[in-house]
Amino acid sequence: MSTTAARPRLTTSAMIASIAGEGQRTRPAPFGHALVELAAQRADVVGLSADLAKYTDMHIFAQAYPDRFFQMGMAEQLLMGAAGGMAKEGFIPFATTYAVFASRRAFDFIHQVIAEESLDVKIACALPGLTTGYGPSHQATEDIAMFRGIPGLTIIDPCDAIDIEQAVPAMAAHPGPVYLRLLRGQVPVVLDAYDYTFEIGKAKLLRDGKDALIISSGFMTMRALEAVEQLKADHIDVAVLHSPTIKPLDEATILREAGRGGRLVIVAENHSVVGGLGEAVAGVLLRAGVAPPFRQIALPDAFLDAGALPTLHDRYGISVEGVCRSIKGWLR
Amino acid sequence: MTATLTDLEDSAYRIRRYALRMGEVQGQGYIGQALGMAEILAVAYRHALNLRPSDPRWEGRDRFLLSHGHYAIAFYAALIEAGILPESELETYGGDDSRLPMSGMATYTPGMEMSGGSLGQGLPIAIGIALALRQKGNPAFVYNCMSDGELNEGSTWEAALSASHHDLANLICLVDVNNQQADGPSGKVLAFEPLADKWAAFGWHVQRVDGNDLPAVVAAFDAARDAWQPQPRVILFDTRMGRGVPFLEKREKNHFMNVAAGEWKSAIEGLDAAHAARVAGRAR
Q1: Cα–Cα distance between A7 and A1 in angstroms, integer?
Q2: B80 in contact with A, Cβ within 8 Å
């Protein structure tokens, strides 16, 4: 990277920074609008938040359906307990907060109140992984690792606005508890360029390639697709398998694609290298006796820095440039 | 709901007896708490709660959450007394493949509305149920039954704030104040007095009564239901662990009361004798 020009020092990203690149197509608040549309069709849908409606796009639902929205205050254990109570009474509650607070502060309530009784609570949380430069208190680096340990909990890490719009009604129709990592505000639109529909429990091959396979979830699928375009210039041909449902994993598709042989398998995720999509995939492969060369692009097992998001994404290797660097290095 | 005080007294006796028999089956159990709560459960299940025993999921029912899951031994006794569980199932308490596990779980037992082992979760759940009932226009009450130990958990107070914030007049919280928790008397572990003042400051309609005084318990349940204020209701019941079996009530208070193998039989005999004396006293 050229250092001849002094780089301007970027400031810590505000908590509401968007991960959309410059000039990227986006849609505003896909979660909030999808929930409003769902609520028009399903009278049993209600919304709750722990004082973060405005920051999880739940405010759009709250404005459209004020008598179906319940403010629980900055009390995440109460949020999850109450959502469970409403589900027991036949409602489909969508409960929002930040991913850090749902996973860390409210874990026991999600585990014991919601999951143990398979209640129809749909937990949608903003600031997944590294989507804020605010520091470790708000960077949900291990939420997937934690929630994978809960039996019966479906886990979705959407790539873009398309995934989110389609996931919302799918979650409501899906029996049992669901955890959705949420992108909010101006959310990129990427997957409409592919022959793609979101389906719970299904991984979709967006593009094939012979030199490497990237299995990714969340916005790392967007990064992977951009990296793959850049790598063409180096005559590197990379496949991208988008796996938005992390639990249950689409084991059949993953085994089929990773088992094809002759290419490096890379799992890219906006999550700690510990316990997320990468280790989940590794477990599936090894148990099936499939052992391709395997690498992970993920956040380090560390408390992450505070700072500007673009700087941090590059520092931790999850920017497009970072992904390209890693892949070129591995294929040398 | 036409049970007389005499009927309720007999119910409390039978609840104590069922609980002792379950304790005997297991050789151990939270029997001190069960004996202390017998009057409260008798009044709840034979007087206060609107229920259909043959249909534990009847939509019009008053919901009853056992937040303190370890009180399951007492709760099963109440469910047997209410005709929701058959007495024959009592022998399976705490055993393999039983519908009556030691820690109460909704997935195991008809009439059990939550899984309560973790503690401090019932009141938050009750908030959700109360909101939902109001949303549906369902006039039923939701009762959350909890221990004084659970007053230590922050989630209890999150819920207490919320109940008042949302004017949940269909929510009745019952607190068993036996002043004993795992590491000792509550006053030495995490003191919560003055307790009534705290709930009042949180905006609740508060009553505090002797939980082993049957007429007082009946009056408290009635007042909680009939209160006109748009507030959630709490009844603080001061109870004595081991109540009803004098040698257990006098025993050094233990969260998990020690009862030797042969003592279960003498406890039941003592309970029966006291009951017989009460019955004889009525005949005069």
Answers
A1: 11
A2: no
